[in-house]
């Protein structure tokens, strides 16, 4: 979808990205890199319909070799925040003609703020809010290689989040800012064991599941 917006606000976010200063190797750094402002130049220039029409007249009379391409900026931002946030980490990289698993630990918090990655006109965030908070409730971890391995999970047993229910059913914004309290468990096939949150946060996450707080 291409929209025409004021250039001064088109790349604005709910919270200042430059204040974030994310630590390399963290989920914040991953999100920062994924939503960074990119310059489209040379072979990546953007086809500009307006420039082409100004130069050549009505589009129906334009030949492909006369299309006008221009330098541009591109940025992917969140325009509608979800009740449940699922983050899928890319755990592989190309190594010649084969794929190799990335085993590096990525730091992730109990509570994450998406505001630096949301457009300033985010549709379902109350006006004036500069935080969009989520609480961690599940993690999937993979051990092994690209060819074989084992999936395990961490899940938080907690009381029902009424605010999340209101958000899912009626679209009302939740109001809490603290992590949802509960006990974490490690699940591997039929084996289930209670674990501290420190064990969860030190895991090699493959999938992260967060529920919205604010």
TrEMBL record:
Coiled coil: none annotated. Residues 1-213 form the USP domain. GO terms for cellular component: cytosol; nucleus. InterPro entries: Papain-like_cys_pep_sf, Peptidase_C19, Peptidase_C19_UCH, USP, USP_CS. GO terms for molecular function: cysteine-type deubiquitinase activity. Keywords: Hydrolase. CDD domains: Peptidase_C19K. GO terms for biological process: protein deubiquitination. Pfam families: UCH. This is UBP16 hydrolase. It comes from Thinocorus orbignyianus.
């Amino acid at each position: 979808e291409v929209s025409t917006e004021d250039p001064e606000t088109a790349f604005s976010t709910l919270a200042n990205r430059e204040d974030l200063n994310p630590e390399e190797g963290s989920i914040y750094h991953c999100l920062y890199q994924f939503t960074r402002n990119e310059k489209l130049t040379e072979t990546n220039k953007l086809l500009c319909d307006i420039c082409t029409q100004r130069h050549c007249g009505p589009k129906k009379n334009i030949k492909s070799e006369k299309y006008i391409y221009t330098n541009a900026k591109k940025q992917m931002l969140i325009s509608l925040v979800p009740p449940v946030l699922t983050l899928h980490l890319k755990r592989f990289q190309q190594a010649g003609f084969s794929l190799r698993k990335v085993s590096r630990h990525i730091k992730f918090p109990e509570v994450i703020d998406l505001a630096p990655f949301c457009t300033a006109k985010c549709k379902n965030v109350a006006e004036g809010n500069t935080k969009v908070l989520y609480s961690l409730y599940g993690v999937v971890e993979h051990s092994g290689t690209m060819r074989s391995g084992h999936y395990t999970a961490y899940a938080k047993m907690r009381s029902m989040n009424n605010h999340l229910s209101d958000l899912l059913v009626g679209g009302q914004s939740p109001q809490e800012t603290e992590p949802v309290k509960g006990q974490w468990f490690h699940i591997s096939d039929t084996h289930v064991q209670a674990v501290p949150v420190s064990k969860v946060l030190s895991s090699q996450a493959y999938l992260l599941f967060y529920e919205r707080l604010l």
